[in-house]
Amino acid sequence: DTAVSQTPKYLVTQMGNDKSIKCEQNLGHDTMYWYKQDSKKFLKIMFSYNNKELIINETVPNRFSPKSPDKAHLNLHINSLELGDSAVYFCASSHKGGSGANVLTFGAGSRLTVL
Amino acid sequence: QKEVEQNSGPLSVPEGAIASLNCTYSDRGSQSFFWYRQYSGKSPELIMSIYSNGDKEDGRFTAQLNKASQYVSLLIRDSQPSDSATYLCAPSRRGSTLGRLYFGRGTQLTVWP
C-alpha cells in the first residue's frame, strides 16, 4: 500500500528518557514533516525536510532532533523527555512544488505518553 | 504563529441538514486555504482546497473564500452521520513557506440520525 507509515503507534515512557519515532513514505513525495497534536487537538508544525534538507524549523526545544537519511524517511528523536511532550506526533509528506505542496498526506500518528 | 480561528464547537446538526463551519485568519499573505477532516483517533485528511475568492463546490461540500474579510467557510449539505468529525481550517502562503500550514483548533461536528 502506498502510504505514510510511522512507528511506533504508541509509546509510553518515563521522564528523562530518550525515544525515537520513525517515518517512511512511499508516495514519491519530496517533502516530509513532523506535526504535533496536543491534548486540546491543536495541530502544530514542528519540522519540514525537502530532499533531506531542513527547510522549516519552528520554535521547538533542542531536545527534538529530526533526521532524514533520504527523502523517503524522516525520523524524530527526542532527548530528556518531559511531561509536556505527551502528544500525538504526526508525520506527513507532500510534493514540494505548486499547489501540491500543501496537500499533506499524514501518517496514522504516534501517541507519546510521558509518565 | 499565525492566528487561525474557527467557530467553537461542538456543532451538532440533524442528518440531512446543512452544516456550516467558519474560519478566520490573521495572515493577509495567505493565498491558499485548505479544509482537513479528522475522525476521532485518526489522522487528518484533505477534503477541500480553495485559492480564489468565491465558492468552490465538490459533491456535498462547498468552500467559500473572502480574502478581503479574511474568512473561509465550509458548507456540508445533506449532512450524514459519517460526516461526524473534527474539521480543521488551514491557510497557507506561497513561496518558501510552502507546506507550512497553520491549522485552526478545529470544529467538532456531530451529525445525529
Descriptive key words:
A: 115 residues, mainly beta, seven-stranded mixed beta sheet, four-stranded antiparallel beta sheet, B: 113 residues, five-stranded mixed beta sheet, 51% strand
Give a verbal description of the structure.
The complex is a heterodimer of chains A (115) and B (113). Chain A has strands at residues 4-7, 10-13, 19-25, 31-37, 43-50, 53-57, 64-70, 73-78, 87-94, 105-106, 110-114. With 115 residues, chain A is mostly beta strands. Chain A starts with a strand and ends with a strand. With 113 residues, chain B is mostly beta strands. Helix content of chain B is 0%, strand content 51%. Chain B has a 5-stranded antiparallel beta sheet with strand order 1-3-8-7-6, with no helix packed on it. In chain B, strands 2-10-9-4-5 form a 5-stranded mixed beta sheet, with no helix packed on it. In chain B, a hairpin with a 4-residue loop joins strand 7 and strand 8 (71-76). The termini of chain B are far apart. The A-B interface holds A 31, 33, 40-45, 48, 55-56, 90, 94, 96-97, 99, 101-104, 106-109 and B 1, 32, 34, 36, 38, 42-46, 49, 51, 86, 88, 90, 92, 96-103, 105-106.
Instruction: State the separation between the terminal residues of chain A, measured CA to CA.
Output: 35 Å
Q: Main beta sheet of chain A, described?
A: 7 strands, mixed
Distance between the termini of chain B: 38 Å
Low-pLDDT stretches of chain A are: none
Strands of chain B, count: 10
Described by strand count, sense and barrel closure, the largest sheet of chain B is: 5 strands, antiparallel
Oligomer: heterodimer
Shape by Cα distribution of chain B? globular
Overall pLDDT of chain B: 90
Order of helices and strands of chain A: EEEEEEEEEEE
The helical percent of chain B reads under 10%
Unreliable spans of chain B are none
As a percent range, the share of strand residues of chain B is over 45%
Using CB atoms under 8 Å apart, which protein chain pair has the greatest interface? A-B, 24 and 26 residues
Radius of gyration of chain A: 13 Å
Number of helical stretches of at least 4 residues of chain A: 0
**Structural class, judged by helices and strands of chain B?**
mainly beta
The neighbouring-strand order within the major sheet of chain B is 1-3-8-7-6
